[in-house]
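Sequence in, structure out. Go.
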Amino acid sequence: MCNLYKMTKTVEEVARLFGAVADPPGNAGDTVYPGYPGIVVAPDGGTLRVRQMVWGFPLTLKGKNGQPLKPKPVNNCRTDKLAGGFWRPSFHARRCLIPVTAFCEAESGAISGLVLFARTDGRVITRVGLFELLLALEVPTAAGTQATVRPPGVASLDNALGKPCLV
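Output:
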């Protein structure tokens, strides 16, 4: 999934779709860019919750003098990178689903230009994601993979969250 997605359904609508508990709505808008809040479906103990998270894992880089720079939100994780130290802990322990009503991908062969993908009936598309709880910041973050699943096609959400769901 590219750097932009849209979610026009409410937290309550998504909670009903997944049989989950809805956290109080936050300030997530219907257009989500890296570093902005969006909603996810994530396990919390034995309960599924629809909650707000910031789009993108924070990657702190260093400047030319070794000083830490402002964290950059990283929002794409490829399957060939999941075994690395940056993604591995979340891949093994913290999976989520990212409900979207549309997502963008770069136009083929174009340097700039995005193509918006959405269902013609307006139903939710669910992207597989990972999340991290940053206790120091008290801000949960999420990043999406390049896999897509739809809620009606998932036999059990536990299976979707507990096993690799790259379909």
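Check: Helices lie at 11-18, 88-93, 157-162. The two ends are 14 Å apart (CA to CA).
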